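Example record

One chain of 141 residues, shown exactly as stored in the release files.
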Amino acid sequence: MSKSNGFNRLFKEKTDSTFIQLFRYTFVGGIAFLVDFGSLYFLTELAGLHYLLSAMIAFLLGLATNYLLSILWVFSKRKVQTVSVEFSIFAFIGVIGLGLNEFFMWFFTEQVGTYYLVSKILSAILVYLWNFGARKRILFT
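Predicted structure tokens for this chain:
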């Protein structure tokens, strides 16, 4: 396999490979995380919102980013053909992720005493694993 062929397979071609989808989902998750993390910082530090309220709003902005990039680039086949139903399920999985995010943010910040932005990084890793696994299994092949 040539280098450009490998590049195309990883970044351009539609794929059913779970490994490549996870690889791409990591990029998508990174972009969504930047939207989430940046919004969290902006809303907490500059807008003065409580960090848990900021975390919820920021998470929802990251969710929308993740959905759009996931359907455009990560997953090539969809199990649900109705976009509104698909997004509802995607969002429901995200709401469970939001609950996990809020719990882990609270736990690491309030119980462990970790700075809230470090708590967000730890939470993001755990929620990332939940989101990919659930979305891959339920919505995409």
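Notes: Residues 33 and 62 are 6 Å apart (CA to CA).
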